[in-house]
Amino acid sequence: MSALLWIPYVLIAIWMCLWFVPYSVNGNRPLPECMALIPLLTFPTVLLMACSAIAGQWWQVGFAASQLAVQALWFVSTLVDIPRGALHILGLPERRRRAADAPMPAESSASPRNLRWSLMTLNCRFGRADANDVVGQIQRRHVDVLALQEVTPELLQRLDDAGIGLELPYRSLGKASDDDNGGTNAILSRVKPAESSSSSIDILAADIPSLSLDIQGRRVRFVSAHPKSPGRGGRFWQIGIERLAGFSKRIISTHEAPSSHEPGGLPSYAPLPQETVVMGDLNSSLYHSVFRHLLTGSGLSDAAFEMKAGVHPSFPASWTYVPSMLEIDHILMTEGLIPLSISTAIIAGSDHRALCSEISMSA
After folding, report:
1. Sheet holding 145-151, edge to edge
2. Closest residue by Cα to residue 120 from 340, 345, 299
3. Model pTM?
4. CA-CA-CA-CA torsion for 356, 33, 292, 337, nearest 10 degrees?
5. Strands across the sheet with 329-333, in order?
6. CA quadruple 17, 20, 22, 28: dihedral positive or negative?
7. Residue 109 in this model has a pLDDT that exceeds 80
8. What contacts 4, CB < 8 A, 6 or more positions away?
9. HEC string of 335-360?
10. Which of 174, 191, 330, 361 has the fewest beta carbons closer than 10 A?
11. What integer is the mean pLDDT of 225-253?
């Protein structure tokens, strides 16, 4: 009977090896879903380890310990710097600089508080998020820029009724289309934008609206993005994540698509040269090699990873007695921006936690 325990051990080992699957094939389902669940394999591994210990199967205990050690390495890499060689093996990006080590920029009248800008992003769950709760978080955190996904006209009306215009009077809304996934995207600002657009880069999903603000003498673009979930098409999901590289200052090869119906091809494209913050439900995590490739190849950095702040699970957030387990909401930024804080907040009506961050400009 104890020998049968090797079967789940081997299955878990194979599942964990999906971390190393080349990013170019990430879109083949059910790979995206299986990769997302890799961190949860810790729980059955611990259970199996206990069973093996009770049965006196010490080889199995050692095997389980090695699996847990790999899981621990993946987690520890989000908290501390690990050797560059290990980063390359794991496909993780190198951190640019610690926020605490970065010099604070000179004061400017462009920002409400001069040095720090408060950001928040939220997937609104088909427009069901509680508008009063959203506005309450904006007021408590003094949010300067808010990114929303899965927005509906009804939600916008409820937000207006709740007084969001008094806090964030400027907005850019994505146009409704057949590519919308759960609703449109929106980006709202406390400060009047220098530029705005209802659509920027085409990621074969809901339009990505943008606002460009003048901050401390430099222009910074903020966008709200929501690549399709794997359930709406694995290749569209992969292409959507890859195309976010277009907001970077570097050029990387991406899997382009000549149309929204026939993804394929491998051309490169020139990114848009501007400091940018990408916020939203990106339907991916560091456990997806396509997301790691986005970070390592494009120059975009993940706020939580850059700060060594650990993981910030944001989904699910609506299940009773079940904590958020998957980190699929992100705030990414180009090289001239520095994350100063990162946290999450529960918003009634949504199945995602809001992800909140403060950022500043590098010197």
Report:
1. 170-173, 184-189, 145-151, 117-123, 354-361, 337-345
2. 345
3. 0.90
4. -10
5. 195-197, 210-215, 218-225, 275-281, 329-333, 301-302
6. positive
7. no
8. none
9. CCEEEEEEEEECCCCCCCCEEEEEEE
10. 191
11. 87
